[in-house]
């Protein structure tokens, strides 16, 4: 007969021992630890591979720019430099003309694009994904100088459509008033967004369809009264006699042959104001003022510039006497 189980102090039988742990649970814990370990190793490897300025797999408009900042800028310029300088084809009232991006304030800013893409990405999904070729997309920065764009479109409006603005011309060496007329003209405000989108499409895809720009009915802003005022107060005095500009020991006269290449009048908020073509001005005076230095407000001594000549020329054109039509550029601005 089997011996009875030993009794405790209370006389009751001792409780049975706890059941042994299941082996499956231990394997699950080990597997989870292994996965975490592998993930940590992969994360560390990804960080090591992404130690450069631009993380691996970073692309701008499909172009991989990973690596150093300088290399990234070069890659962008190689891929998009020519595209961003290609003139846009725009159509106004059935007439197709070109619009140069740089003149219109439309650019691809490679430096800022790279600067924004610089820096390590510590997101585990991105870091580990880079080991398997996962891309990291960075936005191309294409700022718009709205003032330049508006000026370019306004200039385009003057050559397209049927509306014309009143002005004064100097082609014959004498001022001639030309009244404006109503008609259709480019809708500048309505065109800005269309041109901007077309430029970005051109940079991204290498081509863009000609952009049909909207037109609107326009009345001239320059009235006959304004034409009369501008003629009397500026145009007639300007062309009444030559103007001599002096700088140091050198001088040059501007008269009926040279002034029409330099001078024009442009509408600004219902008024006609004089406008100078600085490139034509520089071509006109050439090396006439070479060797003359102007002491600037900073103390620096620099050569005569077209802006210096314009400042003197503008005063001389309003002169009423021979003496008033000889203007000397101040070579000591201090």
Residue share in β-strands? 15-25%
Alpha-carbon distance between the termini?
127 Å
Q: Which architecture name of the domain at 224-328 does CATH use?
A: Roll
Order of helices and strands: HEEHEEHHEHEEEHEEHEEHEEHEEHE
Residue-averaged pLDDT, rounded? 85
Gyration radius, in Å: 37 Å
- CATH class type of the domain at 224-328: Alpha Beta
Portion in helices: 25-40%
The CATH topology annotation of the domain at 224-328 reads as Ubiquitin-like (UB roll)
- What class do helices, strands and sheet pairing give? alpha+beta
Q: What's the number of extended β-strand segments?
A: 17
Low-confidence stretches: 5-11, 39-49, 127-133
Number of helices: 10
Order of strands in the sheet with most strands: 2-1-5
Query: What shape does the CA trace take?
Result: flat
Structure description:
With 334 residues, this protein is of the alpha+beta class. It has a domain at 224-328: Ubiquitin-like (UB roll). The chain is 38% helix and 19% strand. The protein has helices at 23-49, 69-85, 110-117, 124-130, 146-157, 188-205, 224-238, 259-262, 278-285, 306-317, and strands at 58-60, 63-64, 88-92, 95-99, 136-137, 167-169, 176-178, 183-186, 211-212, 215-218, 243-247, 250-254, 263-268, 271-276, 293-295, 301-303, 326-328. The protein has a 3-stranded mixed beta sheet with strand order 2-1-5, with helices on one face. The protein has a 3-stranded mixed beta sheet with strand order 4-3-9. Strands 12-11-17 form a 3-stranded mixed beta sheet, covered by helices on one side. Strand 15 and strand 16 (301-303) form a beta hairpin. Helix 2 runs antiparallel to helix 3 (110-117) and helix 5 packs across helix 6. The longest helix has 27 residues, at 23-49.
């Amino acid at each position: 007969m089997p011996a009875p189980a030993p009794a405790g102090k209370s006389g009751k039988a001792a409780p049975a021992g706890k059941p042994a742990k299941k082996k499956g649970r231990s394997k699950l814990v080990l597997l989870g630890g292994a996965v975490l370990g592998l993930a940590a190793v992969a994360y560390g490897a990804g960080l090591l591979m992404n130690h450069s300025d631009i993380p691996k797999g970073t692309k701008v408009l499909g172009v991989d720019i990973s690596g150093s900042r300088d290399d990234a800028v070069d890659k962008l310029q190689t891929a998009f430099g020519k595209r961003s300088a290609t003139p846009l084809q725009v159509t106004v009232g059935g007439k197709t003309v070109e619009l140069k991006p740089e003149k219109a304030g439309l650019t691809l800013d490679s430096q800022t694009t790279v600067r924004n893409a610089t820096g390590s990405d510590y997101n585990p999904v991105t870091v580990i994904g880079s080991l398997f070729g996962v891309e990291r997309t960075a936005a191309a920065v294409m700022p718009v100088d709205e003032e330049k764009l508006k000026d370019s479109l306004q200039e385009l409006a003057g050559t397209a459509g049927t509306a014309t603005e009143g002005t004064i011309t100097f082609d014959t060496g004498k001022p001639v008033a030309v009244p404006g007329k109503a008609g259709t003209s480019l809708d500048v405000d309505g065109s800005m967004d269309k041109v901007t989108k077309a430029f970005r499409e051109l940079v991204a895809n290498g081509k863009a369809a000609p952009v049909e720009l909207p037109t609107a009915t326009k009345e001239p802003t320059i009235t006959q009264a304004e034409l009369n005022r501008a003629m009397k107060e500026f145009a007639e005095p300007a062309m009444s006699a030559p103007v001599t500009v002096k700088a140091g020991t050198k001088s040059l006269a501007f008269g009926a042959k040279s002034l029409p290449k330099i001078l024009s009048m442009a509408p600004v908020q219902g008024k006609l104001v004089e406008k100078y073509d600085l490139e034509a001005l520089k071509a006109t005076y050439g090396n006439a003022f070479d060797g003359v230095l102007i002491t600037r407000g900073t103390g620096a001594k620099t050569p005569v510039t077209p802006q210096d000549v314009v400042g003197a020329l503008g005063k001389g054109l309003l002169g009423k006497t021979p003496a008033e039509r000889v203007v000397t550029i101040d070579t000591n601005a201090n």
